[in-house]
Amino acid sequence: MSEINELYQDLILDHTKKPRNFEVLEGASRHVEGYNPLCGDRYTIYVRMEGDVIRDVSFQGSGCAISKSSASMMTTIVKGKTKCEAEAIFENFHKMITGQSGVDKNKIGKLEVFHGVSEFPVRVKCASLAWHTLKAALGGEEKTITTE
Amino acid sequence: MMTTVFDVQQYRKDFPALSQKVYGKPLVYLDNAATAQKPQCVIDTLDRYYSAENANIHRGIHYLSQKATDAFDEARDKVARFINAKESREIIFVRGATEGINLVAQSYVRPLLKPGDEILITWMEHHSNIVPWQMVAEQTGAKLKVTPINDAGELILPEFEKLLSEKTKLVSVTHISNALGTINPVKKIIQMAHALSVPVLVDGAQSVPHQAVDVQDLDADFFVFSGHKLFGPTGIGVVYGKAEHLEKMPPYQGGGDMISAVTFEKTLYNKIPYKFEAGTPHIAGVIGLGSAIDYVSAIGMSRISAYEHELLEYGTRALSKIPGLRLIGTAKEKASILSFVLEAAHPHDIGTILDQEGVAIRAGHHCAMPVMERFGVPATVRASFAFYNTHEDIDALVRAINKVFEVFR
Ligand SMILES: Cc1ncc(COP(=O)(O)O)c(C=O)c1O
Question: In chain A, count of helices (H) and strands (E)?
Fold first, then answer.
């Protein structure tokens, strides 16, 4: 497989074309906007917390295929997880897309399809934008965060 | 008139960077609006300067210093001739177009501005021709006014005329838009502004590499450009200013070279252009820029323009055939820049795929966020051509775009 096909795997393209949980979340307890001024990617992540548990999560916005599919898959994976669990997934996901060792594959599950990003350093920000934004939301921030 | 063929293959040999491969594929360099590749003669000039001629200028009495000073002064003469300035002392060396605009903003405009005064720019400016004006506006209480553009990416001149008034203290306009390729009717704009005695700065960053420029014919008050887009070194650029303006302006920075006598009570400033060139300048850059100017002048700017225009037409035809492709910037008067978006994929994804095919373009907002907003897109893909690009380069671009469709079936 060429590096391009490694990057744009079918599952990624599927989430780009049919993003999941792509809506404003009614009754969200928090929402945070994430923005990458360099490429104009802009997403809002909505979460409804019950104590430490992410009861529901959704997103809105626009951007490239990598950022959008990453946001979409993130919402499917963190729903029902605790704040700590979600953060541990992000930590491992981030290690994988930046090409570091010690990735716990059990933690990232389907997110494995993003491993091709590590060959494209300029796209790491695309893949991690939604996650940084979620992290800010879980941390109780209510402002726009940017990747710059 | 004698017409000679434009032997692009011969010129390509002068640029070592163009013959390399990336990811095992021949490099197709279409990011010339960001920066241009360098001909061997410029590289050799830098090499020779650092190997054999390195010395500081205007201060040494030794052999090397004299040689470096001569080469430096000669480069200033070359720049003056290249844009047809009346005198060499109207040429000030700076780091680039950006620093040039900041110099004019701080030294010329700022002392003139009172609260309520206006600076008039356009919707298609590069951030470097927006932010310095916002800064002086903030410092003085003046206002920034913006001339709108139409759907083709052309200035709406009647709106410009309406916005121009006795409150306007300066018009600053790009000669060619880096995001759209639009060539602005700067001569006409200058006439309109001068009718109200308003001075005009022309941002020539994108025009000098592509067409002959005559600052006297334009009657520009200020004209700035960057060496690196003109096949010269990075870190060197030019401010042309009419001597009558430069004489009256306070210095931009203080230091060595810009003075004629210093005591702790009072400093006497040097004459122009030295008044604006504090400290040791980018000597290698200046000499290298002179060499780049020699190189393009030998080819001839009008021949370069004609060849690039043909490339633009070929490229426009080729891209227009691609389904779902929308050109951003379709002005009647256009330079060799093709900015576009595809329905099928985001500019960043296109950029990544094209890059893997060896095609270097730029995907992003091109430091012109208001333009992106005007056209309702977050970013565009921009292919920008130089005279060393070929029809085959455009064919390679089209093939690479077809790869995008394969990935995003
Ligand atoms: C129209 C225009 N103006 C100004 C600049 C700034 O040039 P520099 O970054 O070399 O100072 C650019 C560079 O992209 C440009 O395209």
Answer: 6, 4
Q: Which of B241, B175, B201 lies closest to B33 in space, CA to CA?
A: B175
pLDDT average, residue stretch B39-58? 94
> What ranges make up the beta strands (E) of A63-143?
none
This prediction's pTM: 0.94
Three-state DSSP class for B191?
A: helix
Helix boundaries (H) for A40-123: 65-78, 83-97, 105-108
- Nearest in space to B231 (alpha carbons), one of B396, B59, B388, B100: B388
The size of the A-B interface in CB pairs under 8 A is 49
Least confident of A2-6, B32-36, B146-150, B153-157: A2-6
Query: B85 with B113, same domain?
Result: yes
User: Domain boundary at B280, B298, B316, which?
Assistant: B298
Q: Which domain holds residue A60?
A: 3-146
Residue B38 covered by a domain: no
Kindly state whether residues B88 and B25 are assigned to the same domain.
no
Assigned domain for B343 exists: yes
B348 in A contact zone (CB under 8 Å): yes
Q: Residue B348: list chain A partners with CB under 8 A.
A: 39, 41, 63-64, 66, 123, 126
- pLDDT grade, residue A142 (50/70/90)? low
CA distances from B301 to A42, B72, B206, B207, B403 (A): 42, 23, 13, 11, 35
- Per-residue pLDDT, A49: 94
Instruction: Give me the interface pTM, i.e. the ipTM.
Output: 0.90
SS3 string of B96-111?
Answer: CHHHHHHHHHHHHHHH
> What is the pLDDT averaged over residues A64-72?
97
Same domain, B58 and B207: yes
The residue assigned the tokens 């609260």 is B115
Answer yes or no: are the C-beta atoms of B347 and B341 closer than 8 Å.
yes
The phi, psi pair for B155, rounded to 5°, reads -65, 140
Last residue of a domain, one of B283, B298, B313: B298
Sole residue written with tokens 């595809």: B342
Beta-carbon contacts of A91 under 8 Å, excluding residues fewer than 6 positions away, are none
* Probe target for ligand 1 pocket from B122, B234, B367, B371, with the most ligand atoms within 8 Å of CB: B367
Q: Which domain holds residue B325?
A: 8-30+300-407
Cβ of B205 closer than 6 Å to ligand 1, yes or no, is yes
